[in-house]
Amino acid sequence: MKTFELSTPAYDLIDITRQVEQAVAESGVQEGLCCVYCPHTTAAITINENADPDVVHDLLLALGDTFPDRAAFRHMEGNSHAHLKSSVMGCSETIPVSSGRLALGTWQGVYFCEFDGPRHRRFFVQVVGS
After folding, report:
1. C-alpha dihedral sign at 95, 101, 106, 110
2. CA–CA separation, 101 and 21 (whole Å)
3. pLDDT for res 130
4. Distance, CA of 53 to CA of 60 (rounded, Å)
5. pLDDT tens digits for 66-88?
């Protein structure tokens, strides 16, 4: 398993596709699965379009509208909205590996989702051959 670290802004989706591709290449696995996992409760991992930056903008806008901070939340840290976004987006993605490469679609990229930054974060990549 490979561990990556990153410093995140307050609220963003960070394209980590290159780091995940690097882990797959270094693994030597030609056919198998790649799991990308986030061990944080106010962050997430997702796959989405990486060609048009407006997609990231629109996703963040919609998540903010859907899960705003609310005075009625009881969590003492005041970041319940970030926990909700993390739960909806999910803490991991599994991607097939074919011919030694991620089997992503033409426009797909892998993103680390920060909902409660800025923070020092990490994510794990595990590549398993078949």
Report:
1. positive
2. 7
3. 82
4. 11
5. 998 888 888 878 789 999 999 99
Q: Are strands 2-8 and 101-102 parallel, antiparallel or unpaired?
A: unpaired
End-to-end CA distance of the chain, in Å?
Answer: 16
- For 105, phi then psi, to 5°, come to -70, 165
pTM above 0.90, yes or no: yes
Q: Reduce the secondary structure of the chain to three states and give it as a string.
A: CEEEEEEECCCEEEECHHHHHHHHHHHCCCEEEEEEECCCCCEEEEEEECCCHHHHHHHHHHHHHHCCCCCCCCCCCCCHHHHHHHHHHCCEEEEEEECCEECCCCCEEEEEEECCCCEEEEEEEEEEEC
Identity of residue 108: Q
